[in-house]
Design goal:
The chain is an alpha/beta fold. It has a six-stranded mixed sheet with strand order 5-4-3-2-1-12. The chain has a six-stranded mixed sheet with strand order 6-7-8-9-10-11, covered by helices on one side. Helix 5 links the parallel strand 7 and strand 8. The longest helix has 22 residues.
């Protein structure tokens, strides 16, 4: 299938736990049912085969909630909490991307921010665990050695799903600011990147060009010769946070960095655009702006190998105790960059 309709869902989010309160597990299913209803509407209205939901579409988000509460609220994949989405994928022969807080038996006492893709058979066909996040959750690089042993080596950090709709890869929220994530997914074959995100309002989002977050999304699409579908959270309900804490503005971007469709505002909505795989593949096969065929990874590898960045297995023996501990690690890494002359510390 070289051309098809895709839909990004800017859904409202509702937290399953609020600060100082018990986990409301019934909200997990309510959120999943609501998301499935939006998929059904999009399939009926547009005939879309690919749907992208925002980060926290199942769990919501809230400030002041303890790590232990988020662990309690976490789910296994697949599980009954996402069954409505699994049925919707079967009913419409569609692929659906979303996100949950996930617990893994191999890593007790931890939780992961995990994006997933459900295939038309209703199975969870891909799991991508968020790489970059200075929060209380665990990332694959925190437990790198054991993670690679369990899931199949370094490639397991960047899974790509080969489908009739093209090769699909997922990245989550803050990951978009690290070109290495999108590039690794692309080097593993991704043609359509699904950016599952929940971006709060801030000065970095607003200028005449749409802000830094929008700029890097266009750059990731352009430099990787890929489509990029970004689903941001809509209104925040039943929460201590403001209803419009997220800026919305979900987008579908083509391989030239052009915005094909965009949500104007923060309300719950669906946006749709056509994905033309043959046009993308022609661009990649050409000699002009075909960056993938010109890239020389071996020239860059020694610089990366010598860099002193965030260490692998930083929290292999125990999970990070708090956001503060992650911030302390970040400060330590910055100090080493200053000491080696990689960056200059401000006065």
């Amino acid at each position: 299938m070289t051309s098809y309709s895709s839909t990004v869902i800017q859904s409202r989010v509702r937290p399953v736990v609020r600060a100082g309160q018990s986990v409301r597990r019934e909200v997990l299913l309510e959120n999943a049912r609501h998301c499935a209803d939006l998929v059904n509407r999009g399939a009926n209205a547009f005939g879309s085969r690919l749907f992208v939901l925002p980060e926290f579409c199942i769990h919501g988000f809230e400030l002041g909630v303890s790590t232990s509460a988020w662990i309690e609220a976490s789910v296994e994949l697949p599980g009954p909490e996402i069954e409505p989405l699994m049925r919707a994928a079967q009913d419409h022969k569609a692929y659906i991307a979303g996100m949950v807080y996930e617990r893994l038996a191999a890593f007790p006492g931890r939780f992961f921010n995990t994006a997933f893709i459900i295939d038309p058979s209703g199975e969870v066909a891909l799991r991508y665990r968020k790489m970059y996040s200075v929060t209380g959750k665990t990332t694959p690089q925190d437990v790198y050695t054991e993670y690679c042993r369990l899931f199949g080596g370094p490639e397991s950090l960047f899974p790509v799903l080969d489908t009739p709709l093209g090769r699909l890869g997922v990245l989550v929220c803050y990951d978009i600011h690290f070109p290495e994530v999108a590039r690794c997914l692309t080097m593993r074959g991704a043609e359509v990147l699904l950016h599952v995100t929940s971006e709060a309002r801030g000065p970095e989002h607003f200028d005449e060009g749409g802000g830094a977050w929008s700029a890097v999304r266009k750059a990731r699409a352009w430099e990787n010769n890929c489509y990029l579908l970004m689903a941001n959270s809509g209104p925040n309900i039943d929460s201590d946070l403001p209803p419009n804490v997220c800026h919305g503005e979900s987008q579908i971007i083509d391989f030239t960095g052009r915005v094909l469709n965009k949500a104007f505002g923060t309300e719950e909505c669906l946006i749709t655009a056509s994905i033309d795989l043959e046009a993308l593949r022609r661009r990649r096969a050409g000699s002009r702006f075909s960056f993938l065929s010109e890239l020389c990874p071996a020239a860059h590898a020694p610089i990366y190998d010598a860099a002193q960045g965030w260490p692998l297995d930083a929290f292999a023996t125990r999970p990070s105790a708090s956001v503060a501990e992650n911030k302390a690690m970040q400060s330590s890494v910055f100090a080493s960059l200053v000491a080696t002359g990689k960056v200059i510390s401000p006065e």
